[in-house]
Structure formats: C-alpha cells, structure tokens
C-alpha cells in the first residue's frame, strides 16, 4: 500500500498490485483545504498515517476508512499552548505544517515533530491528555522562514536537526529557547537536511543553487567537510541509504542523483558514538549554563531595582513630611492673611457706614433749624 497527499488536499491510496489508479481516496469535503505537504505512516495495527498541511490541521487517517480522518489536530493558538510564554519570538495564529518527522525506532511510536510555515517547530505526542499536549508539548523558534525539514538524530533521539531559511540548526529537546548549534548563513536557501544512518555526527543539507553540503561534526563544526554541486537546478530533497554508503538527491528538474560516499564519510569511527554524545552533552550543558546565567543576571537586576526603589522611597519619606508641614504652614499663613484682609475690609465698610449715618443725621438737624 502506498499513500500520497495531493495538491487539492485529499489523501490517496495505491495498491501496488493495481498501480494504474488509486484504490481509494479521501472525500474532498473531509480533506485538507490546502496542499498536503508531508505524510507519514504511523506504527499501528490498522494502517494509520499522518498528514500535515498549511491549512493548520494535522490529520490521522485509517486506510480501512479512507473517506475522512479519524483524528483532527488543529495547529492554532486556541488549541496550542505555545512555549516559551506567549510564543515569544514565534508566530501567532494558525501554524501551517510543511514537514513531519516520525520514526518509532528513534522517537517512539507516539511522538512526532512538525515543521511549520511560520518557522516554529512542534514536538507532538499522540498520548497527550489534552489537545495542547497532543499537538505540542514543546515549541522551538529560531528560523526566519518556513521549516522545510526536521529529523531526529538516529542515535541520540533527544537531538534533532531542522532546516529553514539559510541555516541548519541542531536542537536539544529539553532546551527549547535556542539551538545549541547553527550553521553559518548560506548565500542560497536551504531546502532539506538529513542525518547519516550510520554515523551520528554526519548530516547532509541541500541548497537552492544545486549544491549538497556534507557536515562532519567529528571533523569540524564551522564549515562543511565537503560541498559538491550535484545539479544545475535547485535540490529539494535527499535520502541516504540504510548502510550509509549512498545518498540520493532530488531536484526540481525531476532528476534524482545518486552519490556514492567515500569510506571516511560512511564508516563509523572508533568510539565515535561516545565522542558525539559527549559533544552534544557539553553543548547542551553550555547552553543551559548560559541560560541560567542570563536568568540569574536578570533576577539580580530586578532585585537591585526593587532595593533601590525601596531605599529611594525610604529616603523620600522625610522630605514628604517636611513638604507636607510646609504646605500646612503656608496654608495656615494664607488663611490668617485672608481673615485679616477680610476683617480690615469689614471694619472699613462699617466705619464708612457710620460716617455716612452721622452725615445724614447732621443734615437732618440742619434742615429742622431752617
């Protein structure tokens, strides 16, 4: 049985015994509303598969009931508890899925990862109790554009590789605030990134200019161990063979190029697993220590700010009392002055009335004498 996602959003199934036409397909009204960009078979007895699309949904299908999905997971801010808090530095709203990583031998039968169009990577668990726990127990933000590829390390499952914008980034699942390793910014856009199946410290990236970069972390971490032009057209995908001796690269021109690797790139070195494990552990520990130092610095700055605010309030309190006393004294003096002014004015008015009355009396007496 072969399953594939279509540009109109439906999921189709082919029987290899009758390959001329699809054996079944989903109903258009029950399917994705955007193109299906990635699809993975899940480990189950009934033949389940997972599909993601830029419409913001992740569907789980059962090939026995192909008409509609059996599980629907919405990748939006209403059902998704984004981490870090409020998804700082990440996208808001509906997150469109572009790629899926699922390997039951590496991450477990219930865990998968989704790379989104907005640059956020979701670590999901089907056994979560709530919708938020199912679709994203952790989120990782670091890419400036769509994430085209995400894959766990086949040996160290807590570390995974993501490709987006002009860089490839290596993440530690227990530390989601920043990648522990990032390549330099290439001139061409990166399109795919895959781990070597045998050597845990080797991974491959493809670019829009037709080049494939081979990174060997045992050799160096700053530049690729080898860069070769595979095609004159953009490369969009790559897949190594199980034994690690060959790698196939597909381009937009429809051609697949098979590259044979040298023994130094495909042969596991002595004690390489322990060395790469130590390298990953040291890098993740360094990032944790740096993050702890930053948090302690911020906490110390906040504590000093609170202390300075408290001291300033304590030193400002006597000045406030003096100002209040001065204001009361000024108000008292002003009130006394106003009362004095009003009293003097009242006396002047009374004296004027008395004089006028005396004048009127004198005028009346003179009138009688006449």
CATH architecture of the largest domain: 7 Propeller
CATH level-four homologous superfamily name of the largest domain:
YVTN repeat-like/Quinoprotein amine dehydrogenase
Number of strands: 22
Helix percent reads 25-40%
What's the overall geometry? Answer: elongated
Q: What profile does the largest beta sheet have?
A: 4 strands, antiparallel
Q: Regarding CATH, which class of the largest domain?
A: Mainly Beta
Kindly report how far apart the N and C termini lie.
143 Å
What does this protein look like?
- The chain has 370 residues and is an alpha+beta fold.
- The chain folds into two domains: 2-269, YVTN repeat-like/Quinoprotein amine dehydrogenase (Methylamine Dehydrogenase, Chain H), CATH 2.130.10.10; 270-340, no CATH class.
- The chain has three helices and 22 strands.
- It has a four-stranded antiparallel β-sheet. The protein has a four-stranded antiparallel β-sheet with strand order 8-9-10-11. It has a four-stranded antiparallel β-sheet with strand order 12-13-14-15.
- Strand 14 (167-172) and strand 15 (181-182) form a beta hairpin.
- It starts with a strand and ends with a helix.
Write the layout of secondary structure elements.
Layout: E1 2-5, E2 11-14, E3 24-25, E4 36-41, E5 48-53, E6 57-62, E7 71-74, E8 97-101, E9 111-116, E10 120-125, H1 131-135, E11 138-141, E12 147-152, E13 159-164, E14 167-172, E15 181-182, E16 190-195, E17 202-207, E18 211-216, E19 226-229, E20 235-240, E21 246-251, E22 256-260, H2 263-266, H3 272-369
Antiparallel strand pairs: 1-2, 2-3, 4-5, 5-6, 6-7, 8-9, 9-10, 10-11, 12-13, 13-14, 14-15, 16-17, 17-18, 18-19, 20-21, 21-22
